[in-house]
Specification:
- The protein has 19 helices and no strands.
- It is mainly alpha-helical.
- It has two domains: 228 residues, no CATH class; 204 residues, no CATH class.
Length: 522
């Protein structure tokens, strides 16, 4: 099977699994919005959850995956399963010790961490204290998901993607059930969500164990930390941690600055970002995760032409998905939030403010997609340092623009600053990769973009006209809103697919089949 087919198949499997998790995540956010609205408790929870989530990106999805997957892949394919098993045992043992220390340290130092990230909450009595309390409950989550990331890397090398990608479904279900069943049993109802996070993290890890064992991998303690390949992974992780840290600091900075804005601003940004991450999680993350093993194999076999072809293919698929999705998110921001969230404690003004944030995030989807695909190109070549420097400059751009834009535009200015920083990040990554590898041959990608844009314009005009049929900020009318929004999105997708065929967009048939396959499998 060619690498292009490998990437497409893996992206399809990952997208299906991630899609199920994202749907559960959307239901989770609907439950949270209905029970707790956007204000004192939700602001505290979202900032508290930022801290273990931030460390998850440091130690798990970012640096560990970037360092472990290429190295483990080379060991497994060159030195055999026995050597790979030994390295996995040592890495797991070391990770358990490190993350136990990080978890205990985080619980002890929680008051200072919360004060740092949510400093603006100090002006509201009890808000910092609630944030600290929720953060202490949730901190063990980082222990479970860091071990989960290692098992996920092993399974991806073995060609198994579905269960690891679907595991967040358990986190979302745990949070939903705990919120519904336990919120009346606590003095502060939102405590139930924090309990759901910890239970969900443990379930995510436990479900991977039998799958790993089915591939003949028997993980056991091994304290030979001086193993050369383990040292190599550790050295690759160090700049990776720094790079992910800088990237995640962008999110932390946004929430820190939002804590100085009127109450609810943190929640508006969170809910908007959650819908923004829906297509990002299903397609962009799935494609990036599928591309890394493929590119690692091509680098290992010194197939430079194949490496460039995989990069071109990934970039065109990203454009095919994210450009129309960006326009769709922008146009459908208020309708989606009205349909899914406007009930209970989440009122029309909350919908309007969150929609403004989502509309500001939406144009950045394409550029986030480029970055997610190009970064694995560096990781596959075991260059984890270059993305660090680019992330550092991206952080400076985001902080500067955030400070400039938050005063006149409030939380919408912070969302726009993150979008503009994403534009800078993707451009810097492509420029740097070209300097390292020589010409990337991106004319085919640019040509595809010129064909995608007119198809997107046609789709956008039709969607805009259809959405004007419903007064979205009026309460109720759920069936009417759902019918119009669902029909509009379906018609827009068909119209865009027809436009891609009409303008002969490369790989459009693969993209349509990929999406159609997900729908049929569901």
């Amino acid at each position: 099977m060619s690498e292009r087919k490998n990437i497409t198949r893996a992206t399809g499997v990952l997208g299906l699994a991630t899609g199920l998790s994202r749907i559960a995540g959307l239901v989770r956010d609907m439950v949270v919005a209905g029970l707790f609205g956007a204000g004192f408790g939700t602001d505290a929870f979202f900032v508290a959850f930022t801290i273990p989530n931030l460390l998850r990106r440091f130690f798990a999805e970012g640096s560990l995956t970037a360092a472990f997957v290429p190295t483990y892949s080379q060991i497994y394919h060159r030195e055999g399963k026995e050597q790979a098993q030994e390295v996995a045992n040592i890495c797991m043992t070391l990770l358990v010790l490190v993350m136990t220390g990080v978890t205990l340290l985080g619980i002890w130092g929680s008051p200072w961490l919360v004060e740092l990230i949510g400093h603006g909450f100090g002006a509201v009595e009890g808000k910092l204290e609630l944030t600290d309390f929720l953060n202490r409950i949730m901190f063990p989550y980082i222990f479970f998901v860091s071990l989960l990331a290692l098992l996920t890397g092993i399974l991806n090398i073995m060609g198994h993607y579905f269960v690891p990608a679907a595991s967040p479904l358990l986190l979302n279900l745990s949070m939903i059930l705990c919120a519904l069943w336990l919120h009346t049993r606590f003095e502060v109802g939102i405590t139930a969500l924090a309990v759901g996070v910890v239970v969900g993290g443990a379930l995510q890890l436990l479900i991977q164990v039998p799958v790993v064992r089915s591939f003949g991998i028997r993980l056991r303690p091994d304290f030979h930390f001086g193993h050369p390949q383990v040292r190599r992974i550790a050295w690759l992780m160090l700049p990776g941690i720094a790079g992910v840290a800088i990237y995640q600091i962008n999110v932390v900075v946004s929430r820190l600055l939002a804590s100085f804005l009127p109450e609810g601003s943190v929640s508006f940004l969170y809910y908007g970002q959650r819908l923004f991450e829906f297509p990002q999680g299903i397609f962009i993350v799935s494609l990036a995760q599928a591309v890394l093993p493929a590119m690692s194999r091509q680098v290992g076999s010194r197939d430079d032409q194949g490496f460039r072809e995989s990069l071109h293919y990934a970039l065109i698929l990203i454009a095919l998905i994210t450009i129309p999705a960006s326009v769709g998110l922008y146009l459908c921001a208020e309708p989606m939030l009205s349909l899914f969230f406007m009930k209970g404690a989440f009122v029309a003004e909350d919908v309007r403010q969150t929609a403004l944030a989502l509309a500001a995030y939406a144009p950045g989807l394409f550029f986030v997609g480029i970055s997610r695909v190009v970064v694995p190109a560096f990781y596959a070549r075991q260059d984890t340092r270059t993305p660090v420097w680019i992330s550092f400059w991206t952080l400076l751009v985001n902080v500067t623009l955030g400070l400039v834009l938050m005063r006149p535009f409030g939380h919408v200015g912070l969302a726009a600053a993150l979008t503009l920083a994403s534009v800078f990040n993707s451009g810097a990554l492509l420029w740097t990769l070209r300097r390292k590898l020589g010409p990337l041959g991106l004319r085919a990608v640019v040509s595809a973009l010129m064909r995608i844009l007119p198809a997107t314009v046609i789709m956008g005009a039709a969607v805009w006209a259809l959405l004007r049929l419903v007064p979205w900020l009026e309460p109720g009318r759920i069936w009417l809103k759902g019918s119009v929004l669902g029909g509009t999105i379906g018609f827009g997708c068909l119209l865009f697919a027809f436009g891609c065929m009409l303008f002969r967009v490369p790989f459009s048939e693969e993209a349509v089949n990929l999406i159609k396959g997900k729908i049929l499998r569901r």
